[in-house]
Amino acid sequence: YGKNTIKFLRLHKEGKKQFVKEVEVCAHLRLTSPQEYLEGNNSLVIPTDTIKNIVLVLAKKNGISSLEQFAIDICNHFMTTFCQVAYVKAYVQEVPWQRLHEDGVPHIHSFICVPDGIRFCEAEQCRNGPLIVFAGIKDLKLMKTTQSGFEGFYKNEHTTLPERHDRILCGEFFCKWSYGECKDFDFNCIWKQIRECILEAFAGPPDCGEYSPSYQKTVNCIQMLVLSRVPQVQVIEVVLNNTFYNVVDMKNLGLTNDKEVLVPVETPYGSCACTLGRK
Amino acid sequence: YGKNTIKFLRLHKEGKKQFVKEVEVCAHLRLTSPQEYLEGNNSLVIPTDTIKNIVLVLAKKNGISSLEQFAIDICNHFMTTFCQVAYVKAYVQEVPWQRLHEDGVPHIHSFICVPDGIRFCEAEQCRNGPLIVFAGIKDLKLMKTTQSGFEGFYKNEHTTLPERHDRILCGEFFCKWSYGECKDFDFNCIWKQIRECILEAFAGPPDCGEYSPSYQKTVNCIQMLVLSRVPQVQVIEVVLNNTFYNVVDMKNLGLTNDKEVLVPVETPYGSCACTLGRK
Amino acid sequence: YGKNTIKFLRLHKEGKKQFVKEVEVCAHLRLTSPQEYLEGNNSLVIPTDTIKNIVLVLAKKNGISSLEQFAIDICNHFMTTFCQVAYVKAYVQEVPWQRLHEDGVPHIHSFICVPDGIRFCEAEQCRNGPLIVFAGIKDLKLMKTTQSGFEGFYKNEHTTLPERHDRILCGEFFCKWSYGECKDFDFNCIWKQIRECILEAFAGPPDCGEYSPSYQKTVNCIQMLVLSRVPQVQVIEVVLNNTFYNVVDMKNLGLTNDKEVLVPVETPYGSCACTLGRK
Amino acid sequence: YGKNTIKFLRLHKEGKKQFVKEVEVCAHLRLTSPQEYLEGNNSLVIPTDTIKNIVLVLAKKNGISSLEQFAIDICNHFMTTFCQVAYVKAYVQEVPWQRLHEDGVPHIHSFICVPDGIRFCEAEQCRNGPLIVFAGIKDLKLMKTTQSGFEGFYKNEHTTLPERHDRILCGEFFCKWSYGECKDFDFNCIWKQIRECILEAFAGPPDCGEYSPSYQKTVNCIQMLVLSRVPQVQVIEVVLNNTFYNVVDMKNLGLTNDKEVLVPVETPYGSCACTLGRK
To answer: Is A167 marked within a binding site?
Structure first.
């Protein structure tokens, strides 16, 4: 199969107010025949350059009301236009431009990049199969400075980790969920709702938090909350790349360190991942 | 000279509420004698490991009330403790953790990383010289989708760029200013004030913006506004790494493109830099 | 499942001659029960820290005769030691240290890092299943300045790419092959042989090369040559991330440019991938 | 001032044999008047696009016989063509394409990227001043697995580092030297000679090496050897970004580890730098 990445900006105006989407689109295609590979016969090959043109033309004609709708548009275009396409996947990712505010007043044409979790989506379709839509958030970095521990784990002669009931929980989240064969969803609204679920499940109530006995359990809490609150989500995958912090031992330096100064442990780092769906 | 980079986390509590600073500190030292280089005589060398310990001990003892105060503490410690140090510079940069909010309520111990401009500072001192403090913001990405042009530039036989009076202005800013020999400044407050000046000078009034005839002029506007509004700033340097966007020519594709779809031009990219001080 | 990354150096001596392997190991584990996720019950969980210790102990005890053997050792250890492990995968990647030579004489203890294609391998096993070994090379950048074209491709109203019969072929290769259920292979020797096949199939005969009608066909040639020359390989996957170069149009500048000056096209970039096995 | 980066490929043929240079050029200009900044008057500004065109035209017309000559050409062009230029600096860096060999036979048009130290150069000139040329190598990673120690350093209450007489010496080198006001040098030949000096001074004799009492002393040895062997070099700056490795303590795991397994220490990392010239 082949894959192509295109970056571009889509502007539009409503009166004098300007709106901007900057996206990176990656289109994957698989053809019905491998003759290009086996025989060097290019007659069915759709060049990267053509794919780029199509994506830009679709952006011009349709705009980007939501990343998901734009990914769906791309899949539909390739499936209906090219009978040699056996499979198409469109991945769309957003540069997180946010409107600038001055003293609370929104600016009509100025934006700031705020990458606190990147929105992305995927639409994919096999010929004669359903069009399936995924959405997600990545590069979302969160930290809890307390209410986290790791105890009661399996121990043997290679175990050196002490049990801890008050550690830092910190990591980068990748969450991706499936909408199934969706139609007429308000993708922008649902995405914001899911982002809030993730933050809420990670952090717990604002006044006291909620104890996390492991990275794994926190991953599961996020999945459970999203599935319970957002009926459009069929399956949700969460990957957490943890950053470990060690309390610095300052005994040699004549000081006690009551979890005040910690250093990140860069090796080893771990990640845990889980995919959870509805019954 | 030698340079060392240390990353760590500093936590503190006020009641049950938790606060966090994650910083990267880089300490530069130059010794009074080059004998370590010329003769392999290490007797004056302060090992990286010792520097790390000192930085962590200072963080433990003093906390990090502001990046600037912490950088000053480091300089003071090295100058007063080690007579073999001829010059010290402490660079401190912050990981932009922000307190999480749920429905507007701040969480007592959960944080999200929001890298919309990274705060940093530097303090430096030569033996018998003044301690000078710099602060700055980097990796700040801003965009204006209109009210920007570039006309009337120098032309010769190698000129192919057309004049434009409605282009995109987009780039990454690095701003660094000097406080001179400061004392008792509220560094956190001043930094926020300067950040707002930068955004305001870049964007112009929220309802209409202000026309920018060049990247260079925008850089100058930022400098002028900061110097006029913030008396503590002595000199300000601004570097702007521009991203150019070209309106896609869609004539071949049978479409007109009225600045709706643009692609980034990755080569060449340019930057402009200027340093401006008071008379 | 969980994943952990550990970096370390393994030294050994033969007489006064020193040998070094620097590797990055990533161990993936899946347990027989998801109780850690669902119930927060950690009693079966093998902490990252324990996995790190095991990998370091295996390196100390067994050395790293080849990346593949080390990956096999890791899989065997986890499968035989922990009955709660349902699946294990060990990925091992090498930092490409090469012995320094002075005037052709090898140095007994000095090395230079030469990253002209990174060697890696994977071993994986499900409980009660076979242990399967993969090996590969990644980040291998190759270029042919002639003997490459792209013609006869599919055209429609979105096609703007001209046909070309003398373009640059340039890209980064990722190749990964399976040895099936291997035993007693000389993995180091086979890996070098496959690397040479890849280079030979890419470049063609040294005096004239071989015409490539497309990236896809070059990918296929590499796969065919490896499968024909190296009987231990069962299946081979090749991914080629192309870099496109455009001949600069210098007509406006009063010059003809006979494929002398070219600029890389950063957007769009494409990749093609293919997996080929034996019948 | 302004800065612009351009990447391109320069091909040429001798008979059927093909040669390639891929370079990244960064041109810095400072104008005689700051009116572009202060008044938004662009009449003296040379657009990025024009600079790109000039660099490409020079590459087309002159070829790239050496990076240094090309940088000199760029400086000369800007100084002689534009009277508004007060200062010009041209930085040129090479993508390390090497000719492929099959069984020792060089291939006429195929290349592999071998980034074992990146060659770069700089030429700079102020109006009415001399043209000065620098050259250098960066991203050169070297390791000695023995014959290195660090003892006799300064100690106080913050010292926790033990003395070591058999540690790993590993790091990334940046070396930059000045040729002064050069003329008619064989830059390609001198560069290779200096690279060999660096490797030789780092490693010592192939059969036994030479003991390094510190990173600093190794930096100095490199500088001394280059200055003594290469008369064209006026001044040489060396920066060494060290990677520290710790022998893993395996006592808790019931094993002795005789410098066989080591882990990189990612924080703190240090660097030492020194500039040395002739009297």
So the answer is: yes
For residue A243, report the phi and psi dihedrals to the nearest 5 degrees: -115, 125
Residue linked to tokens 């401009």: B117
Contacts of D157 in chain A (CB under 8 A): 253-254
CB pairs under 8 A between A and B: 195
Predicted confidence (pLDDT) at residue C36 exceeds the cutoff of 90: no
Note whether C252 contacts B: Cβ–Cβ < 8 A: yes
Taking the C-alpha atoms of residue A7 and residue B37, their distance in angstroms, rounded to an integer, is: 49
C53, two tokens: 């210790």
CA dist B57 → A244, B60, C61 (Å):
21, 5, 38
| Listed range (B204-218, C42-56, C261-275, D123-137) with the worst mean pLDDT | C261-275
Which residue from B158, B263, B266 is facing C253, i.e. has the nearest CB? B158
Closest CA in chain A for residue C85: A154
User: Closest to D109 (Cβ–Cβ): which among C97, C209, C262?
Assistant: C209
Who wins on pLDDT, B39 or B146?
B146
Q: What pLDDT shows up at residue C31?
A: 93
ipTM exceeds 0.90: yes
D39-71 exposure pattern, b = at least 16 Cβ within 10 A, e = fewer = ebbbebbbbbbbbbbbbbbbbbeebbebbbbbb
User: Known binder of ligand: residue A150?
Assistant: yes
pLDDT tens string A6-21:
999 999 999 999 999 9
Cα-based distances in Å from A224 to A144, A215, A220, B29: 19, 14, 6, 52
* Interface touch C110/D18, C-beta < 8 Å: no
Query: Does residue B268 register a pLDDT over 60?
Result: no
The closest of A23, C157, C154, A18 to B255, measured between CA atoms, is C157
CB contact, 8 Å: B273 with chain A? no
Contact D160 A253 (CB under 8 A): yes
The dihedrals phi and psi of C136, each to the nearest 5 degrees, come to: -175, 175
What residues of D are in contact with residue C59 (Cβ under 8 Å)? 260-261
Residue D36's pLDDT is: 81
SS3 content of chain D, % helix, strand, coil (to 5): 25, 40, 35
Residues linked to residue D241 through DSSP beta bridges, in sequence order: D172, D271
HSE-CB of D178 using CA atoms within 13 angstroms: 13
Q: Is B216 annotated as a binding residue?
A: yes
Q: In chain B, which among 217-236 make CB contacts under 8 A with chain D?
A: 217, 219-220
Q: Which chains touch C (3 or more CB pairs under 8 A)?
A: A, B, D
Cβ distance A9 to B245 under 8 Å?
A: yes
Q: Which residue of A has its CA nearest to C56?
A: A158
Q: Is C53 annotated as a binding residue?
A: no
Domains contained in chain D, CATH given = 2-129 (3.10.270.10), 138-277 (3.10.270.10)
For C253, which DSSP code? G
Cα separation of D225 and D270, whole Å? Answer: 24
Q: Which of A64-68, A126-130, A244-248, A268-272 has the lowest mean pLDDT?
A: A268-272
Instruction: Give the residue from A279, B17, B84 showing the smallest Cα distance to D154.
Output: B84
DSSP single-letter state for residue B74: H
| Cα of A275 to nearest chain C Cα, Å | 10
Q: Is D193 annotated as a binding residue?
A: no
Average pLDDT of C146-156?
A: 96
Give A-chain residues touching C41 at CB under 8 angstroms.
Answer: 152
CB contact under 8 A, D110 and C209: yes
Instruction: Give the pLDDT confidence of D183-204 residue by residue, as tens digits.
Output: 789 999 999 999 999 999 999 9
